[in-house]
Amino acid sequence: MPTTRRQFLSLAGGVTVIPIVTLRPAEATPAMLSSAIRNIVGEAPIRTGKVKLDIPPLVENGNTVPMTVSVTSPMTADDYVKSIHIFNEKNPQPNIGTFYLNPSCGRAQISTRIRLADTQKVVAIARLSDDSFWQVTADVVVTLAACTEEVN
């Protein structure tokens, strides 16, 4: 005799499934930001300069924030930018992205849109061909749109 739907559901109800869930904080901490940066640069010193971060200081919606990172470099075979790394302070993942470049890119510039969960610091780090690291930081204020406010 075939199994009925009721019999199947009663048998299936007796089986317990325990999902494996990895818990992370809802937002990154400054320690997580420092750790993510150290994973890229190691113990190398990070200098300020050469990198320009063009991002709006005030955004109403953090879903798509436009940004451009450019590095002062001749982009020749002897002197070029190897990579550009973007980090943020409060998103669940502090490493937003890594972009690899080479001399044939012509210029050291990347443009993208990022998502920001809250008002926070954004850090751009460039690794040059001489294995030096250069950085720039920017504070971005993210406001809430009027339509998301709770009405009492």
Structure, explained:
With 152 residues, this protein is mostly beta strands. It is 14% helix and 36% strand. It has 2 helices and 9 strands; from the N terminus they run ααβββββββββ. It has helices at 5-13, 30-41; strands spanning 46-48, 51-54, 58-59, 65-71, 81-88, 95-100, 109-114, 120-128, 133-142. Strands 1, 3, 5, 6, 8 and 9 form a 6-stranded mixed sheet that branches. A 3-stranded antiparallel sheet has the order 2-4-7, with no helix packed on it. It is elongated and about 80 Å long. The model is unreliable at 145-149 (pLDDT under 50).
Features of this protein?
elongated, 14% helix, single chain, mainly beta, three-stranded antiparallel sheet, 2 helices, six-stranded mixed sheet, 152 residues
Strand content: 35-45%
Mean pLDDT: 86
Total number of beta strands: 9
Number of helical segments with 4 or more residues: 2
Distance linking N and C termini: 60 Å
Residues in helix, % = 10-25%
Largest sheet: 6 strands, mixed
Q: From the alpha-carbon coordinates, what is the Rg to the nearest angstrom?
A: 23 Å
Unreliable parts: 145-149
Structural class: mainly beta
Overall geometric form: elongated
User: Helices and strands, in N-to-C order?
Assistant: HHEEEEEEEEE
